[in-house]
């Protein structure tokens, strides 16, 4: 079975590496073009490209796999199946119809919920208690094709983006190996998605990371953990920008206006949020590393009675 793999970030790279370690016949890899990163804006290879080079697998980075040289290269690879994981580009009909076994995607949500680019973050941001991995056959829509496999996991109150990412990566790898093994013997039974139940997970924009409203402890808690440990939710404090990490629910009732720091101790800062509170264990000021709030208190960067988001 000739496999072409398409993916870009760390989540995808882990799936590719396990396929290669399991001796699947990956004949080529497609990833997005290298992008400039860091202060020096140096071109950096994608994580998927790095794995491909490590194992000596041909890797291609066309602007489009649907047309021109990108499509011609794909045709020459003669794939039996195309597997995509967080590739970041939609496949058109001519690509979808190319492999005899079809094109399949590993998606980090329980479809049809959270179709789109940022399912893990949006799932946490909306306070869901369950999520999972779906493997589906690609059609011309966005994450809308019929489902081949799906498994769910619970979202714990202690989960943030980092921990949930790792749990879903582990589950996705297990499911992909099971799925790839089954393709050798039979075609998967496919279940159409119910479009009426669909919801969407749009890509993260800079404004999504800004926290202004501290009127609900639940919303504040979910917002912070959805982007923790990176890139971090930011808010304002006395005219400065501060990022917030390590959130957990606090007491149901606190005295103070919304966003007010009502306590600072070794556990963090207690922030009044509507009828409840949120405890934040790490903060980061512009140009500084993450620090414990008690250290920020010692440096006179934080103080009881200060108001976040104002």
UniProtKB/TrEMBL annotation:
GO terms for cellular component: cytosol. One of its GO terms (molecular function) is methionyl-tRNA formyltransferase activity. SUPFAM superfamilies: FMT C-terminal domain-like, Formyltransferase. The keyword Transferase applies. Keywords: Protein biosynthesis, Transferase. It is an enzyme of class 2 (transferase). Its EC number is 2.1.2.9. It catalyses: L-methionyl-tRNA(fMet) + (6R)-10-formyltetrahydrofolate = N-formyl-L-methionyl-tRNA(fMet) + (6S)-5,6,7,8-tetrahydrofolate + H(+). It holds the Pfam family Formyl_trans_N. Residues 215-299 form the Formyl transferase C-terminal domain. It comes from the Bacteria. Residues 1-177 form the Formyl transferase N-terminal domain. (6S)-5,6,7,8-tetrahydrofolate binds at residues 109-112. InterPro entries: Fmt, Formyl_trans_C, Formyl_transf_N, Formyl_transf_N_sf, Formyl_transferase-like_C_sf, Met-tRNA-FMT_C, Met-tRNA-FMT_N. Attaches a formyl group to the free amino group of methionyl-tRNA(fMet). The formyl group appears to play a dual role in the initiator identity of N-formylmethionyl-tRNA by promoting its recognition by IF2 and preventing the misappropriation of this tRNA by the elongation apparatus. Belongs to the Fmt family. This is Methionyl-tRNA formyltransferase.
């Amino acid at each position: 079975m000739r496999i072409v793999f398409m993916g870009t970030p760390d989540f995808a790279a882990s799936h590719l590496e396990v396929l290669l370690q399991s001796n699947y016949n990956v004949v080529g890899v497609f990833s997005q073009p290298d992008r400039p990163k860091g202060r020096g804006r140096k071109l950096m290879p994608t994580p998927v490209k790095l794995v491909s080079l490590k194992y000596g697998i041909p890797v291609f980075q066309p602007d489009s796999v649907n047309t021109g040289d990108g499509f011609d290269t794909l045709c020459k690879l003669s794939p039996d199946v195309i597997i995509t994981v967080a590739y970041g580009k939609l496949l058109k009909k001519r690509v979808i119809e190319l492999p005899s076994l079809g094109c399949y995607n590993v998606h980090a949500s329980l479809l049809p919920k959270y179709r789109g680019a940022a399912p893990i973050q949006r799932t946490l941001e909306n306070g869901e208690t369950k999520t999972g991995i779906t493997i589906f056959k690609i059609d011309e829509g966005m994450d809308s094709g019929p489902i081949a496999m799906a498994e769910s996991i619970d979202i714990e109150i202690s989960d943030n983006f980092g921990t949930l990412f790792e749990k879903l990566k582990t589950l996705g790898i297990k499911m992909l190996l099971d799925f790839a093994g089954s393709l050798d013997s039979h075609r998967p039974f496919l279940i159409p998605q119910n479009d009426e139940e669909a919801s969407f997970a749009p890509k993260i924009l800079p404004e999504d990371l800004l926290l202004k409203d501290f009127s609900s402890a639940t919303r504040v808690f979910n917002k912070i953990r959805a982007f923790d440990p990176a890139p971090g939710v930011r808010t304002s404090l006395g005219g400065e920008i501060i990022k917030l990490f390590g959130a957990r629910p606090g007491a149901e009732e606190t005295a103070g206006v919304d966003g007010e720091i009502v306590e600072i101790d070794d556990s963090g800062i207690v922030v009044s949020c509507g009828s409840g509170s949120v405890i934040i264990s790490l903060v980061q000021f512009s140009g500084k590393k993450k620090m414990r709030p008690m250290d920020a208190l010692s440096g006179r960067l934080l103080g009881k009675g200060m108001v976040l988001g104002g």
